[in-house]
Specification:
The chain has 264 residues and is α/β, with parallel strands linked by helices. It is 38% helix and 17% strand. Strands 3-4-5-6-7-8-9-10 form an eight-stranded parallel barrel, surrounded by six helices. Helix 6 (173-181) links the parallel strand 8 (152-156) and strand 9. The longest helix is centred in the last third of the chain and has 17 residues, at 236-252. The chain is globular, with a radius of gyration of 16 Å. The two termini are 21 Å apart.
Amino acid sequence: VELGNGVTVGGDRLAVIAGPCSVESEAQIVDIARDVKASGAAALRGGAFKPRTSPYAFQGLECEGLELLKEARADTGLPIVTEIMGTEYIALFEECVDVIQVGARNMQNFDLLKKLGRHTTKPILLKRGLSNTIEEWLMSAEYIMSGGNDRVILCERGIRTFETFTRNTLDLSAVLAVKQLSHLPVVVDPSHAAGMYWMVEPLAMAAIAAGADGLMIEVHNDPPHAKCDGQQSLTPEKFGHLMQKAGALAELMGKTWVKGGSAC
């Protein structure tokens, strides 16, 4: 799946999407974009609209956040990946965003999935739902593709189990299952799976070894003061260390490391 600016996910490639949980300011998102690009990231993630469990938690900068993501893209050339909240935003995302993320809570928002299939050709990053089966996840992808948009990337981000030590339980068997049952590329988000920064690197390496086509990593330049999910975010320095190891393992697994393009 082509993301933009020469970045492709799938096949014999390994692509890393990295950035903060949420866009907080111009300086924050541009600085992080520069840092993750320097370490070899292929695309920039960042939440402009944030679905939060509590209505009193930070909900994102919304449209202002999209504008700041566009500034980071102009500065670095990295394609931007951000989450859509509802059908009313499709036209706006078609104009502003390179990859539209459907979050875990919207995996079975069938009206949204159908309209993303019919009304946009943008790549769709479809996260697995919190308690959804692999079959349900693949059927959600079918809702998008049956509408005419076959540019779908699956994202395993951990599922809810009885275990409470980690935020979720990372299901790496899902990577193997998706590879067996589908032609779609699959990336792994160890940040949301673990919920703790010190688990992210080992889980990322395990995902590459399991055959994932990419990773989605949360990176923040000041995790203790992040407005969202700082406890699971890597600093740029830790991210750089992860990328060095990931590049070596990707080569061992016969994959080419995809890096972001030039600034616009």
